[in-house]
Amino acid sequence: MARIAELNYRKTPKGWLVNVPGSLSDTGRFRRRYFTTRDKAKAETQRLNEIQKGQRGLAADISSATAEDAIKARELLAGHNVTLAQAAAFYAQHHDKRAKAPTLRDAWKSAIDHRKNHRPATLESYRKLEKKLPAWFMDMNCHDITPDHIRKALDEYTPGATAWKNGRAYISTVMGDLVKLELIAENPTRKMMVARAEETDDEVVIYTPAELKSLFAACIDYPMGDVDRLCSECVAPFAFMAFAGIRPVEITKLKWENVSLELRNIRIGSTVAKKQYRRNVRINDTMAAWIAAIPEDQRKGKIIPARWRYKAAKVRITAGIDGREKQDALRHSFGTYTLAVENNLDMLKADMGHGTTAVYFDHYHKAVTKAEALPYWKVMPQGVAAPATIQPVESVA
Questions:
Q1: Which residues pair with 12 in a beta bridge?
Q2: 9 sits in which H/E element
């Protein structure tokens, strides 16, 4: 083995100079280091020479197989302007980061545990998606996941564009948690090329007055023997969604104690509201009529009946409008027909609990005239006469 010259130091106008070869440099490249005193430069050269001697001793013990492997590695790195030491350091660093990163399945569980205060429906969506995503994807180390892996996993299970988009959003949230915890360097969903959705003229689905009448007509008690036969109890929750714009998830939590017919007010507390923002909803004449039609002794506890989901589905199927609830059609109907009659976005925003008025142009600003909207507000309980005119309701103090 050729003799390796010992390092030395010399004085320059910039200070005492020590030339450090790439094999001993912390960067893997040749460096010039300057010291303010001769003693500091001398101490550094002694330190580097000791390291060099130690490397020389180790080199003498390298087996022929290791030497051949080093030659192959050098050939692979040719043209990349990096040393074997740099390549090894990069691998060690990469391996350490990978070892710290969890599998996507473990990260998914942590994301759910971290969000225990979120809406039950949201957490259930996380759990359902976890079951639908391919096992090979869920078992991957999150450090290894690329945009192509995410795209392939979503393509394997999603039935349509909306599910694909929602799935990507949930994955992005889980991966984003890992970035915040510094377990991965970046969120791979941010690098995904996603085609812009085509613009359409489709509008949200709303009920016609005739469809709304059919819905209430199907709220009856069915023949004995049917476990969900007492569907007359569905009148109240359907009325609150249709004539007060209460969200489907909110109606499952709303209680009669939150409703004041005297004050013409429905109080949506933070534990009821979807976004945990309190709000007061005005009770208009139509809503008041539906509330008054329910015997006072029955206005206790939750507004929804037992087995509400099954009874509501039965009513919708009987009315011939099954599936519309998935699009918040009753709430959209309330927003559309209220806007047509009152033409007051600020009042409607307060009733429906949105942060801005922009959402109304996406969901409720349907081309419905006031004349077309009036029949909707005249859908009354059996035996109750519809008002001759529909007047806007004043804001609740």
A1: 15
A2: strand 9-12
- List the structure tokens of 164: 């694909």
Each residue's pLDDT tens digit, 31-80: 899 999 999 999 889 888 887 776 655 555 556 677 777 778 777 777 77
Q: Is the pTM of this model over 0.85?
A: no
**Nearest-angstrom CA–CA distance, 299 and 257:** 8
Question: 273 and 322, same structural domain?
Answer: yes
Instruction: Name the token pair of 61.
Output: 């013990």
Contact 394, 362 (CB under 8 A): no
Same domain, 145 and 119: yes
**How far is 85 from 55, CA to CA, in rounded Å?**
12
User: What are the structure tokens assigned to 323, written together?
Assistant: 């599936």
- Long-range CB contact pairs, 352-357, < 8 A, 24+: 352/245, 353/268, 353/273, 353/274, 353/275, 353/277, 353/279
Nearest to 210 by CA among 378, 335, 38: 378
The parent domain of residue 153 ranges over 104-191
